[in-house]
């Protein structure tokens, strides 16, 4: 995979079809997503509408990561419009498993941090399952800190797991 050309950019409405193809795969490949396998059910029209809403919202953004011009992951950030919370927002991301370990998560977060500074976002939050050590280490490398624990918040199969709230003040 040394010849792979990886890039990150803001999402386009035209990316909806490719995202609809990879999101269910990501959900199937890892137990760390919000959804379980088969729970993502947006139509092409609904996904296009979702992207249009993100593009129209000045405090929200979505980035897609591509490898050789094929979308292989994404990061979505939802900002807050309430006056007292306008400086904050929360993100989540997913990457196809075959592309893990290639720096894509790092690139997505770097783009988010740069975008956040330019859009007056000063606090970035996320939630992560306590057993997702790879992701936690990635977030910690960028200065995210564990700020709270939601006990037994996630049920995977018959096991309950804590959900960690992490944040970074820019």
Overall description:
It is a single chain. The protein has 170 residues and is α+β, with helices and mostly antiparallel strands. It has a domain of 116 residues: 3-Layer(aba) Sandwich (Aminopeptidase). The longest helix is centred in the middle third of the chain and has 15 residues. The radius of gyration is 16 Å and the shape is globular. Pfam families: Acetyltransf_1. It comes from Paenibacillus lentus. This is GNAT family N-acetyltransferase. GO terms for molecular function: acyltransferase activity, transferring groups other than amino-acyl groups.
- Helix fraction, binned, reads 25-40%
Largest β sheet strand count, sense and barrel closure: 7 strands, mixed
Mean pLDDT: 95
Uncertain ranges: none
Form type? globular
> In what range is the share of β-strand residues?
35-45%
SSE series: EHHEEEHEHEE
Alpha carbon gyration radius: 16 Å
Q: What is CATH's topology name of the domain at 6-121?
A: Aminopeptidase
Number of H/I helices: 4
CATH architecture assignment name of the domain at 6-121: 3-Layer(aba) Sandwich
CA(first)-CA(last) distance: 34 Å
Keywords: Transferase
Protein name: GNAT family N-acetyltransferase
GO molecular function, one term: acyltransferase activity, transferring groups other than amino-acyl groups
Domain N-acetyltransferase: 6-170
Annotate the secondary structure layout:
Blueprint: E1 6-10, H1 16-29, H2 44-56, E2 61-67, E3 70-79, E4 88-95, H3 104-118, E5 123-129, H4 133-141, E6 145-156, E7 159-169
Parallel strand pairs: 4-5
Antiparallel strand pairs: 1-2, 2-3, 3-4, 5-7, 6-7
Helix pairs in contact: 1-2
């Amino acid at each position: 995979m040394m010849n792979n050309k990886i890039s990150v950019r803001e999402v386009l409405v035209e990316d909806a079809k490719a995202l609809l193809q990879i999101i269910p795969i990501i959900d199937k490949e890892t137990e760390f997503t919000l959804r379980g396998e088969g729970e993502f059910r947006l139509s092409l029209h609904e996904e296009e509408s979702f992207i249009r809403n993100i593009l129209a919202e000045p405090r929200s953004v979505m980035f897609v990561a591509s490898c050789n011009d094929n979308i292989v992951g994404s990061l979505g950030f939802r900002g807050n419009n309430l006056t007292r919370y306008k400086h904050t927002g929360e993100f989540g991301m997913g990457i196809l498993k075959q592309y893990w370990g290639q720096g894509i998560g790092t690139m997505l977060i770097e783009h988010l941090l740069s975008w956040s500074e330019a859009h007056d976002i000063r606090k970035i939050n996320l939630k992560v399952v306590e057993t997702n050590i790879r992701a936690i280490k990635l977030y910690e490398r960028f200065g995210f800190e564990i700020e709270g624990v939601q006990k037994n918040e996630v049920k995977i199969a018959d096991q309950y797991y804590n959900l960690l709230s992490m944040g970074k003040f820019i």
